[in-house]
Amino acid sequence: MKNKFFSNLILILLLNVVIKPIYILGIDAEILKITEYNNPGAYGTYFSLLNLTFIFNIILDLGINNFNTRNIAQNNQLFTKHFSKIFTLKITLSIIYLIVLLGVGYFLNYSFKELKWLFIIGFNQVLVAIILYIRSNLSALLQFKKDGLLSVADRLVLILFCGYFIWGINNSSVISIEFFIYSQTFAYLLTILIGLIFLFKHSSFPKLLLDPLFFKLIIKKSFPYALLIFLMSIYYYSDVVMVEKMLDNIEVVSYAHGYRFFLAVNMIGYLFAGLLLPIFSKLIKDQKSIQPISWLSFKTLFMIALIISVSIWTYKSQILNWRYEINGFNLEHSSDTFGWLMISFVAVSCNYIFGTLLTANGSLKSLNIIAALGIFINISLNLLLIPKWGSEGASFASALTQFFILISQIFFSYKYFHFTFDLKPSLQIIFSTVFLFSVAYIISNKSPLIWEYNLFMTFTFGIFIGVALKIFNWKELLKLFKTSKP
Known about the structure:
This protein is mainly alpha-helical.
């Protein structure tokens, strides 16, 4: 199993490193640029509505995906029995989700046009939830290649479809927020069809099977996961909604400029989490040591995140000017917001490791307490900082919240798994951080080359530091997966 994990981790990372950044920075960012030129503030409205749908995504899932991945990974024989019933439950929850979403939109006094957008974006979230459920089954069945292909299928469709209108016929007049939303609907529907074909080997086409007792049992077991997802959604996505309500949709665009890049790199940690959850669950069930793979994954992901964060933060203004052609105060404000988002990226990446570990262990009470405290910190800071600093204040609040979450998760991981303190990895992390910051400072201040070359040099030196200090040790990682095979 570990050999399969390692080989497919490389394949999935390669697929996502190529396709998702092209979509986010090519298609999504270009649509942001075009729509803001044609209709200033339109993308800000869309982005705020999108984040609102994320907050209530809990209704679509109720923690079922995490429960399903953990349960099926440990009991493969239950897949055929549960698939159609849980699929029916998903459809039922989707209807409730859309009703609640429109009710919240009405309460927030959205216009008819905004409610229309909210409904369509919400429907797209329903389709995404179905895709994620299909992927949770593929992951639990250790079908990592198919899961990886499905993880990029919708983005690939959007690249080809939207790219045709943006660059193929070069007709920017066609591009609008509604065009973008409907394009996503088409891509998600096609991805669902592909995912169901992948699952045909393990189950027949899903049927609608109403089983109230089964639904009650699943929801009861999933509720702790559901509460965790809801709490996390609040401190992850409330920033943008608060910026839009407390200021305006133009200010939201300043947040969105850098957030496109944050999303592009954040998928690395997300992929780690999706692949590690069934592995952690299996090792815990078999009562095998969890510390080696936990800390090796942490070191690897921390260094990757640090290199990306420092490299991008050093040239954040140049990057935004290159991508969006913005200047002056707009560039400075968006760059400051972008900088704090990239700092939070380090914490968010590492949270994927320890959050996944605690989830696999079933330590939901501790995770919920951490998340509740995170909400209090995040909203309190936003209320203080957004009126004065706008999107920059929101991104700063996000960074502080994410580092609080990380420290708390590490504490509970030590508590539950009795991790022993090892001086060597701690020194590796400290020295790598100091060396990388020093290199970035020297290159940015002393190099006569243009910023693109300096960015590449900083990134390259970061990789060299990781290899030199033996943080990047793929042989050790592969060896660990072989020896820890259940």
